[in-house]
Design brief:
The complex is a heterodimer. By secondary structure, chain A is α+β, with helices and mostly antiparallel strands. Chain A has two domains: about 1-85 and about 120-170, no CATH class; about 100-110 and about 170-340, no CATH class. Chain A contains five helices and 22 strands. Chain A has helices at about 55-60, 135-140, 220-235, 250-255, 280-290, and strands at about 15-20, 40-45, 50-55, 65, 70-75, 80-85, 90-100, 105-120, 125, 130-135, 145-150, 155-160, 175, 190-195, 195, 215-220, 240-245, 270, 300, 305, 320, 330-335. Chain A has a seven-stranded mixed β-sheet. Chain A is globular and about 65 Å long. Chain B is α+β, with helices and mostly antiparallel strands. In chain B, about 40% of the residues lie in helices and about 20% in strands. Chain B is built from eight helices and nine strands. In chain B, strand 4 and strand 5 form a beta hairpin. In chain B, helix 1 (about 10-25) packs across helix 2. Classes of the chains: A alpha+beta, B alpha+beta. At the A-B interface, strand 1, strand 2, strand 3, helix 1 and strand 4 of A face strand 2, helix 4, helix 5, strand 4 and helix 6 of B. Strand 11 of chain A pairs antiparallel with strand 2 (about 80) of chain B.
Chain lengths: ~350, ~270
Amino acid sequence: MATCHTAAAAYPTITIVFSNVGGKRTDGSLDAPKLSLTREVTGLSINGHTMVKATDLQSYMAASLSKTTYYWRFTRGGQRTYFYPDDTYFDTSISYTIADKSTTPPTDVNYSQWWYGYTDEPAIVYETQEYVRLTTAANQLGALLVWYNASIGKVEVYDWRVNGSTPVSDSNSYVVGGRWLNGWDSEGDTHLAPHFHLDELWDLSSTTSNPTYARQLKMSVNQLQSLENVRQMISTHAMDMTSGFRSWYHNVRLSNSWDKSFHMRGRAWDSIGDADEGDGPEAYNLVYDEFNNTYEYPIDAGSFWRTRVTDGASQGYEIEKMPQSGDTWLHLQRKPGVDTALDRP
Amino acid sequence: MKRRRFVIPFVLGLAVIGLAAYAWLGGSSWRVARATDLSPEDTVSTYLSLMSKGHLTQLVNLVIEGTDVGLDPDDRASGMTLEEAEAQGIAKPLNDAAAKRVALEILARQREFVLAEFGEKAWAEASFSLQSAKLPPFRSAWIDRATNKEIDEETALKMFDSFWEEVEATEGINPNEVIGMRNRVPSGMTAEQSRELRIKAERLFSEYEDRIPVINEAVPTADGYVVSFTFGDGVSKTGVLDFTAVLSNRSGDWRVSSFQWQLPPKPPEGDI
């Protein structure tokens, strides 16, 4: 606790800017999004590592904090991340249930994902305030990107829930991970759902230029359930994924990709159905027909078709309109668990 | 929530300019005439007045909080991931002189940006409203859920530990203690058994979490407001909207910071 672990040295400070994801910069730079709805806080620089106050993560990234004698527990989007005072060790976990629709009746499968890692700087108390290493903490809480802006000498944390003084609420649970976790690259065969592995959903880019965010993952549990649902709808019960989560670096370099894509929010995936059968449109057509209900078309929502049913087998809410450039795939997203206008442009 | 609305009084504007000029011309230190005595409203009026006149150095010295001037209309960015910057040893703030120079450059661009959007009298005829807000710095407070009142840490920790001891009496394990073991494998256990124990502790923690009698909240240590500005008739040339800043007395004086705005909403385009 604050009275038990006190750092003796005086540390220099550094400004941390919490920002929503404002899309592409107007100067053409692809390395970081435009700043939006920001708040600045003061962090510490310890041995060249930026440390952030636990209360600032709590206030601006909408993480709940539970401090005990032994650990500081951040909870956000169902994922729990623990830091331990005076220790570089940290760990993270999430428990959830996915209904396996391939059995009759469907079977609930419980998942308890648990990973750990080590930061380069221990969690400390400094002048009665708890500090944790910013990169590890913000990334594991689900931020899109943590960036150093050399032109202003400030650190920028980009996260969809940052909204000035009042964070965006979001009732989704998300499975979050990345290379800041120990042995992450070898976790690819971990089941996230009965028929889907981690390496089908983490950032799939082979050209992502940034090592920190290659294989970054943030995927809502609802989206995982819809994967299982759609797989069961397809005649061969096989789905090939073409896009799960996308890091900022990946998404911004894709031609024709929206700079606020739902793939970067962990609330969309793309599939071409069963690639071996060469029937990419099947998955799309099945969900499209479900969305129609008894009408000629689903609800027209701009770039999306929105469902007319509340109890569809896919449990999907919107699909991207197809075909595009002669190709058809299924881009599906669930009804957002976000309740502010920020979620919709 | 407090909400008030003001228009810059002309006389106040003159007084503020005079104060700033005194500080600028007469004192070796600008703190000779610091804005300690200004009210929140007068501080914002001073901000607008100095912006209107283009007296940006005085603005930085007297009214702005540190170098947090807010968004740069030119949106300039040059950098790398923090991981990379830390690995290269360059994740550092600018020195004071450079930070002040950059702040002044951004202020100048902000000034021109607003003038271009709303016309040459935009700053001079701006109005604003204040709304209470929780702003940093924060301290961590323990709240007794039963009374919704803050309690001291020692009492809170006793309540916290007692709660989990009661859970242990029912469930056979104390999740608080198991999680506190970090990654240590208890003697007599395999790594796999230890992992299973931890997962069980996590499940129990989540199951009982809503019943924990105390919670931590981040409580601001200073007063603060969000300032909402209206320029001209409120309609900008390019559709930018929601001009805001924050106002805090965390440094002792009331200071303005973080001037920003929203770009007009755009529908999704391309691969969404």
